[in-house]
Amino acid sequence: MTVTDVPETSGTTTFDSLNPATGEVVSTHPVHGPDEVRAAVARAREAAAFWSSLSFAQRAERLRAWGGVITRRLPQLCEVVHAEMGKPHADAQLEIVLAIDHITWAAKNAAKVLGPRRVSPGLLMANHAATVEYAPLGVVGVIGPWNYPVFTPMGSIAYALAAGNTVVFKPSEHSPGVGTWLADTFAQVVPEAPVLQVVTGFGPTGEALCRAGVDKIAFTGSAKTGTHVMRACSDTLTPVIIEGGGKDALLVDADADIAAAADAAVWGGMSNAGQTCIGVERVYVHERVYDAFLAEVTKRAQAVRAGADRGAKIGPITMPSQLDVIRRHVEDALARGGRAVVGGADAVGERFVQPTVLVDVPEDSVAVTEETFGPTLTIAKVPDMDEAVRRTNATSYGLGATVFSRSRGLELARRIRSGMASVNSVISFAAVPSLPFGGIGQSGFGRIHGPDGLKEFTAAKAIARKRFSIPLNLTTFSRPAAADKAMATLATLLYGSGGKLPRRSRR
Ligand code: NAD
């Protein structure tokens, strides 16, 4: 969807959600101002008393019911996603089914991950029982992007809800209808209280949410906006998760399955019209297989077409302003000695960008250093995989990565400076609900998905319970001198030999 007009005032103003393929109005939504956002958070605070009083099993039942509603109404939600952000229905369905899988995983595993757990009290505190449990924070604010308007925010929403928080969700101004659809269907399965609410609007609505007294903000969007979010949250020490952008690389080793690697590069780079935070943007290929790989990529990329018809594999560029970024990246690459083996500068149209594969692009070109967010790939030949890893890591981002190698996949994946990696497949880490999702560096911090994602929306609560008294009571002023002596002896026995070098290595 596209937005017609950024209003200067807030409150009663509305904005239109536009179909990015046609420019038609999809729906109209209010621009919520600070007062309305604060009121939503106040309602969420009250609802938190109800929601957190339910057991994990009761919340899980509601979340599974929500997953059921979404599943039964899948074609309807696919249509809203398609209309607002332009991706083909089949891609919308893929994203939504993965999101339902995450809802189900979070519902099923919250009790196990967050429920009370006994831990060893250690020798010195052996007369205590030690328990750790993870309590919900209260109200979580979720600020989402438009590119995966269901899957991406759901990584925060489902996990925050399963952990016992209520949520106020501010969807992107390009996908307000999707956000509203999600909150409406949730209200069907949890009619008692506004456990999941939506506030709509532009950046200022997101900023108002940061300042509305929520207990945590889960932000997904560009690194630049992430800095604004952190600044707004810093006034109230509101903690934040930042899921930012990326410049992910795919590495192809000399022993890789070339056809599979090429398929992954084209799908990873071009699906969703390249508007994927963990999409493949750069490819580094071992020189021994470079020619064969490039031929395979060329063949596959030529078969992909952007369009609005059912036969098109990719849709429009959702944000009109992104077209200029893509054009600038392609033109810079070509002006600095790069070649387009598929597409090129002409591939960037008024709403659609056709697949573009660039080679011989200097490593300091913006096409290699900045997030392009279009259906483009840069492919570079490297003498060995050490060089591939070095170039992959020469970025301020650190979100995901892909490695194709028969013998060294895990080793190379570990050497890449990123939060996630896939070996011999692409983007697969995002579809495994038990794996944490998130980046490092300019790609952000904090994790959604998996046990780490559940814990992000909780505060660890530590409880030490004394079970019986022992002579060595240390936490009292009436401690006898003998207790201190016994303590010193015990410490010597337990830790005194630590760090001593073996006799024969002493000088
Ligand atoms: P964006 O940063 O423009 O906007 C994201 C959200 O932040 C929107 O809802 C927007 O209204 C809101 N916002 C804008 N200004 C704000 C402010 N000052 N305070 C609070 N909120 C504000 O990003 P986008 O264009 O919607 O999404 C694309 C970006 O998101 C890309 O960089 C992409 O890589 C990234 N992304 C990251 C992930 C991830 O999980 N790491 C997933 C999807 C997208």
TrEMBL record:
Organism placement in taxonomy: Bacteria, Bacillati, Actinomycetota, Actinomycetes, Pseudonocardiales
Name used for this protein in its record: Aldehyde dehydrogenase
Pfam families in UniProt: Aldedh
Keyword Ligase: no
Superkingdom to which the source organism belongs: Bacteria
Coiled-coil portions: none
Gene3D superfamilies according to UniProt: Aldehyde Dehydrogenase, Chain A, domain 1, Aldehyde Dehydrogenase, Chain A, domain 2
Residues in Aldehyde dehydrogenase domain copies: 11-463
Family according to the record: Belongs to the aldehyde dehydrogenase family.
Keywords, ordered alphabetically: Oxidoreductase
Keyword Repeat attributed: no
